Amino acid sequence: KEPAATIAETLKDITSYEGEDAVFECRLSRETTQDAQWFLGDVPLQSNEMNEIRVQGTRHTLILRKVTLEDCGPISFKVGQHTSAA
C-alpha cells in the first residue's frame, strides 16, 4: 500500500476578470495514484470544454476557461484526507 500523498504547495487565491481563464495549481508531496479531486463549492469538477484538469508529476492544475460571475466561489482540491482551498 502506497503512503498517502500530502499537499506540499497549497492553492493561492486569484482574481480574474470575466472572459479570462482562471488557473489554480497545487503540488503534492509525491506522485500518487490516489484519487485527487477539484471542487467549485461542493460541486466536483470534471475535465470538459469549460474546465481543464492536468496532472504533471506532482503538480495538479485546474484551468477554468472564460470564467463568468457564476464561476465565483471557493475552489478546493482534495487528495486522501488533505484539502487545500482558495
TrEMBL record:
It is found in: Cytoplasm. Residues 3-86 form the Ig-like domain. Gene3D superfamilies: Immunoglobulins (2.60.40.10). GO terms for cellular component: cytoplasm. It comes from Cochlearius cochlearius (Boat-billed heron). The keyword Cytoplasm applies. It comes from the Eukaryota. Keywords: Cytoplasm, Disulfide bond, Phosphoprotein. InterPro entries: Ig-like_dom, Ig-like_dom_sf, Ig-like_fold, Ig_I-set, Obscurin/Obscurin-like_Reg. This is OBSCN protein. The keyword Cytoplasm applies. Pfam families: I-set.
